[in-house]
Amino acid sequence: MKTSILISNYNKEKYIEECILSALNQGYKDLEIIVFDNESSDNSLNIINQFSEKIKISTKKRISSFASYNQIDLIIESFKISTGSIICLLDGDDFFLPNKISTIVNHFSKNPKTNIIFDIPRVNINDNIAPLMLKNFIFNNSWPPTIPTSGISFRRKFFESCLKFDILKNYPILEIDFRFNFLSKKIYNNYIDLDDHLTVYRKVDDGIMSNIKKFKRMWWIKRLEAHRFIKHLYVTNGIKYYNNFDYYLTKIIVFFLNRKVN
Questions:
Q1: What's the whole-number average pLDDT of the chain?
Q2: pLDDT for 185-233, tens place per residue?
Q3: pLDDT value at residue 16
Q4: Which of 177-181, 206-210, 234-238 has the lowest mean pLDDT?
């Protein structure tokens, strides 16, 4: 099965070379690598262009002040020019282990009804690599622990379905990994979780949501977006949805925090 690795990058000059090399060093042959850069202001693009003979390279302006929405935009644009039947996502500051793609494709081949695979990455903090400790969401046990973006692989038809039903539109603060984890594990139930050592997720100070601190205003706003996104999923899929206590609590807190700001 042809596989596409979609790499999204913005100002990751410290890590993007290792990221691209990890994709190029896969043992799997039927592979294409697409790097979409968000018009980085650092040296990222010069580094990326060194690999121009081996990968597809595109750039696009940022469309939002929220990094999470820009990331989604780059992934959509990358998908449009991809040709693989299997899609693997990779952030510019993360990297794959050499057996990642062959392992993922093997699992898809053995499980034809599975549309998405999550491999639980190891986390790199200051060059120390350890298992990622998945956290349950505060106050809300109905939300599954989220596997980061670089640990997500899916069939092409899964992403096409997401585009068709506007799963990736709106809710600009909400990351793509939360969307895919919830959709797959609470709505479709067509996923596999792998605890293989396939991906290294790098925890950095300038990550997608690093500027959102727990229990601060934007944290609560993001939480309310998550509730509204989940309601959208349920309604879109013809499933009854009831607002729970956590939703009302979050909505009240956001209301008062916004009044305080205004």
A1: 93
A2: 999 999 999 989 899 999 877 655 556 788 899 999 999 999 999 999 9
A3: 98
A4: 206-210
| Domain match, 147 and 228 both | no
Domain encompassing residue 221: 212-262
Domain count, the chain: 2
Residues 182 and 256 in one domain: no
Task: Indicate if 185 and 221 belong to the same structural domain.
Answer: no
Of 128, 127, 106, which Cα lies nearest the Cα of 119? Answer: 106
Q: Which of 71, 5, 9 is nearest to 40 (CA)?
A: 9
- CB of 44 within 8 A of CB of 12? yes
Cβ-count burial of 3 within 10 angstroms (0-12 exposed, 13-18 middle, 19+ buried)?
A: buried
Distance (Å, whole) CA 195 – CA 113: 20
| Per-residue pLDDT tens over the stretch 39-85 | 999 999 999 999 999 999 999 999 999 999 999 999 999 999 999 99
Which residues make Cβ contacts (< 8 Å) with residue 209, sequence separation at least 6? Answer: 67, 68, 175, 222
For Cα atoms 18, 118, 171, give the angle at the middle one, nearest 5 degrees.
90
3-class SS at 207?
A: coil
Please tell me the distance from the alpha carbon of residue 143 to that of residue 44, in angstroms, as a whole number. 35
35, 77: one domain = yes
The answer to whether the beta carbons of residues 34 and 78 sit under 8 Å apart is yes
| Of residues 94, 139, 98, 144, the one with CA closest to residue 121 | 94
222 in the same domain as 202 = no
Picking from 211, 228, 249, the residue at the C-terminal end of a domain is 211
